[in-house]
Amino acid sequence: MKRNFKYFSSAIALTLLAIAPVAVPIVTSDTGAISVQAADSQTQQRLDADDKSNMDSDPNVPGSSEYMISKFMDQFDNRYVASTKSLTTVLQDIANNTDHAFGGTTGAGYPYFSKTKPQHIYDMQNDVGVSALKDSNIVEKNGTGRTYFKDSSNQKQYYNNDVFAYMSIEYQKNGKWTPATLDSENDIEKFIYQLDGENKNNIDVSGLQSGSISFPLRVTMHVVASDGSENAPDLKNVDAKYLTKSFTINPSTMDITEDKNPNSIHVGDKLSTITKNDKLAVTDNYSNDSDIVNNYLDKMETPHYGGIFTTQKDAISYAKSNNFDPTNLSKGNINSNELKINSDGTDATIEKPGTYYQVVSYKLSDGYSNTGDKVKDENGNDTNSYQLNGDQAIGYMFSKNGHDPLTDTQILLYDTTINGSPATEGTDYVFNKNAETLTTVRKIVVTGSDTPSDPITPVSINVDSSDKNKKLDVSKDVLKNVNDEIAAAPTQSDYYDSNPLSNADAKKVTDALDNPGSYYRELKYTLNDGYSVYNYDFGQNAKVDYDANTVTYYQKVTVLPDSSSNSSTASNWKTSDVNDVVRTKNDQPKYTLNNDDDQVINNPMIDANTSLKVDKVRVDQYGNKQYHIADGEWINANYVTLESSITDVKNDDGVLYVDKTSSDYRLYDNNGNEINNRALDRNTYWAVDEIANDNKGNTYYRVGTNEWVKQVDGVHYPIPLFLHDIQMNRGILHLDDTNQNYTLFNENGRRINNRALAENTDWKVDKTAKDYEGNTYYRVATNEWVEQRNGVHYPAR
């Protein structure tokens, strides 16, 4: 059975680091590809004559310099390591001046990082740590084992003492690859400190910052001289592209995606109705392998839903237990009369309101299979390790499969993130070696289906009003479910510049009543004794605190300018004639009017959804607008919509898709008039920045300056983020000089106007994504993506 050992993980695995300084670099040199040239008969004759001193260089002739060196370089490609610890453990041993397979028996080791003191290529080839960096498939295919350069019968013995090489490591700093200095033990200790904060030997790290160096690292192999006693050929005749090769080192990762907010269902709803946003993405040396391996990965990355618990602590504890079952719904601690499980055990309903916690697991055991055959050592004898199919690195995390054959260690669990942030094992997730599972816990809120009426209505007051203004009085605004009072009047709190329910960045305003504008007042209800927020569905217009048994609403308060001409805030109106019809909205039962002096008139009031003819419009210095409907009577523009215009405009940010239902889609201007010479093609995508309505209830989306498309069949908004199929994919991206600058986009497909990437630069990438036309994008910073096009190279070589 073919072996496929493609990764390295633990301390021993990283002896290779001893050879190359660990750094976070970007690949710039293109040295990975090796072209094959035809052999000439003259070269072959000289080989047959064993005339090593005159061998021409030809990568297609066994024994020639280019052939030998190309095969050496072929062994190395981009690698993933199990964790940062996998690297620093080995580096620490090197810093302590131990052998650690560093090339010698004296304890001094060989300085594989030294450009001025390169080492024999045989020693580098034979080093167990360096071997852990190799692609074992290529090693096996090419027969380039650790003793490759010590077989005189194959014209290779002279390489033992005559060809020299060294390794270098770089890390990324300010978008550029920066060489790591690893010339001494202290240099290595300092590098370790900058990589993960370790400083076991308490060296002076003044001026250095823990964690300032991160993945990816770039390792370059250099073949530099051939001047030993065996009279080997001169390497200056070897094409320079065969003498160096760069590759990157990245950490293998487990990236978990889960809902950021608790899942909410009603009593009696099936658990299967909860939106399943749970996902695992594994990135290692196998994750981009063949379809066969990907079939294993697909199964391993599928979530399984198991027992339900009353506390998160209980759920975590169970996920750690030896008897953990990731798919058994009955293994929670809910009373059996509160959980009804289907006869086939695949679904259930929760019959009591409350907060619950369900284990969500990924079966790592699905990521590989054990062939039952033992791995052979170099002498053909059985080892204690088994040959595996699928993602072998996952399989060697578990002792029953033996050690990783390359490093003779057990693979560590990869660095794990949840929603892109580092997660803590045992608290945020559980790695159960016995069950071979990776488990998180999702929060489920189960509520009743009764929907209490929203007791809060918008109000308008004049600037400088007291908070005792009767319009702000909520002492009688109790919270009711039908006729049942479930909470007394609310407590008043802060004002905000926007609704916190729809804008997470809403800011508190301390002087709202002193300045004209629209604000949102926080009103919090505490449910009466004997009532629980769990028994109700308060909808999207309220914030529920299940622990405090409170529900919070945000009342819109419009502060109007003072009508007094002596006030510094008095409105200066500019009036113009119009001839139009407006219609009152329907977000409140009645609407107040203002007189010529802008004082509120409480009688008459205008009913919702009433059509009114207007002949004048006035606008003050604050942008407030009113329409004249009768002598001495004006109505605020935010209470109405024009019959012939698009109004009630709100900012938004999303992507709109028009499908193939129509051949094209009509556009409208700000006044609601159809634009005759422009339309949207079918099957296209458009960025939207504003949404509006007309008085007939039609919805419009702004896709250009003074251009709106109406919501009709075939118009879809919002669609998922402009970028989708977002995957973890770490590496280095290179931008050549095809373009002077490369445009950046955010996730919604919007061009970022104040930033771009310069030509001839390299950038760390952590995610890739697609747009809805199949174009590929690479994330180079938070919400900054560059599109794959001419001049963009990923992964960089």
Q: Could you explain how this protein is built, in words?
A:
This protein has 797 residues and is mainly beta. The chain folds into 6 domains: 12-251, no CATH class; 252-449, no CATH class; 459-556, no CATH class; 574-642, Roll (SH3 type barrels); 647-716, Roll (SH3 type barrels), CATH 2.30.30; 724-793. Helices cover 11% and strands 37% of the residues. The chain is built from 12 helices and 48 strands. A 7-stranded antiparallel β-sheet has the order 37-36-40-39-38-35-41, with no helix packed on it. A 7-stranded antiparallel β-sheet has the order 44-43-47-46-45-42-48, with no helix packed on it. β29 (590-594) and β30 (600-607) form a beta hairpin. α4 runs antiparallel to α9 (185-196). The longest helix has 12 residues, at 84-95. The two termini are 32 Å apart. Residues 1-57, 97-107 and 564-569 have low confidence and may be disordered. Residues 1-25 form the signal peptide. This is S-layer protein C-terminal domain-containing protein. Keywords: Signal.
Briefly, what is this?
Residues 667-710, 744-786 form the S-layer protein C-terminal domain. The chain is mainly β and 797 residues long.
Main sheet: strand order: 37-36-40-39-38-35-41
Question: Proportion of β residues?
Answer: 35-45%
Mean pLDDT: 80
* Beta strand count: 48
Category by helix and strand content? mainly beta
The number of domains is 6
Estimated radius of gyration:
35 Å
Amount of helix: 10-25%
Calculate the terminal CA-CA distance, rounded to whole Å. 32 Å
Question: In this structure, how is the largest beta sheet organized?
Answer: 7 strands, antiparallel
Which shape, going by the Cα principal axes?
A: globular
Which stretches are poorly predicted, pLDDT < 50 over at least 5 residues? 1-57, 97-107, 564-569
Pfam families: SlpA (PF03217)
Region (Disordered): 39-62
Keywords: Signal
Protein name: S-layer protein C-terminal domain-containing protein
